[in-house]
Amino acid sequence: MLTLRDLNLFYGADSGSETQQTQVIFNLNLDFSKGEKVAIIGPSGAGKSSLLHHIYQQLQDQAALCSQAQGLVDNLSIYHNIYMGALARHHWSYNLINLIKPFKSHLNKVKDICEQLELDQALDKKVDQLSGGQRQRVALGRAVYQQQAVFIGDEPFSAIDPLMARRLITKLFDLHETVIMVVHDRDLALSHFDRVIALCQGQLALDSHEETVNQAKITELYQKSLVASQQAQLTVPQAKALDTENNKHSNEQLKDVG
């Protein structure tokens, strides 16, 4: 379905000069196959969202994206925000009529999606009146209503309680042939996805297709990233002092051995 080879991604000034940009993905090689349910995990700043959006750009003709930004229109209803997933399937005049007076067929389909996503709210309720978790489910509903084979999500359950998230992910799996998702909940990634990819500092750290990935390995990865981040924030004098202290302890240990 998708092959990535020696992928390098940058963000920053759009000047065409890499020296004015920050590199977030380094020489990444990955293959994605149809039917996979893939969780992408990793510490903050690992490059997960950048990778996910690049994947969407490559697959957008067959994929629906549910981003962290959500892109909801606050002064429109739940119904109209979810119906936006169908805009590309109809002529602009059809969509305009549906905006003014919603068609019954779409009302029934959107109602069914809301029931599947456990969104028990009136369809004419404006989304600016919803909680964070309810807004996320509206964004999920809009992606579902695109009726694409591939679902791509950037932490789409971050404001939803863990038990509900587990119920909803099962329904998303039933509705889409392939799912590629950035997941914050490491337990959810391990328990519900058939493949787990972990990034760290823009590089591939773990891939369950290549090795066994378990909670211990993931915890170790996050701890190493935290230590590296703390060291990167040290000033030069602090770093030298830390090195001196570490060398001192090492010499003391050698004397004890001698």
Descriptive overview:
This protein is of the alpha/beta class. It has helices spanning 48-59, 78-83, 92-100, 104-116, 132-144, 162-175, 186-192, 215-232, 236-257, and strands at residues 2-12, 21-32, 37-41, 63-66, 150-154, 178-182, 195-200, 203-207. The protein has a six-stranded mixed beta sheet, sandwiched between helices. It has a two-stranded antiparallel sheet with strand order 1-2. β5 (150-154), α6 (162-175) and β6 (178-182) form a beta-alpha-beta unit.
Q: What is the element layout, followed by pairings?
A:
Elements: E1 2-12, E2 21-32, E3 37-41, H1 48-59, E4 63-66, H2 78-83, H3 92-100, H4 104-116, H5 132-144, E5 150-154, H6 162-175, E6 178-182, H7 186-192, E7 195-200, E8 203-207, H8 215-232, H9 236-257
Parallel strand pairs: 3-6, 3-7, 4-5, 5-6
Antiparallel strand pairs: 1-2, 7-8
Jot down its keywords:
alpha/beta, elongated, single chain, six-stranded mixed β-sheet, 8 strands, two-stranded antiparallel ribbon, 258 residues
Could you spell the SSE succession in H and E letters? EEEHEHHHHEHEHEEHH
Work out the oligomeric state of the chains in this entry.
single chain
CA radius of gyration: 23 Å
Structural class: alpha/beta
Helix content: 40-55%
In the sheet with the most strands, the strands line up as 4-5-6-3-7-8
Strand content range: 15-25%
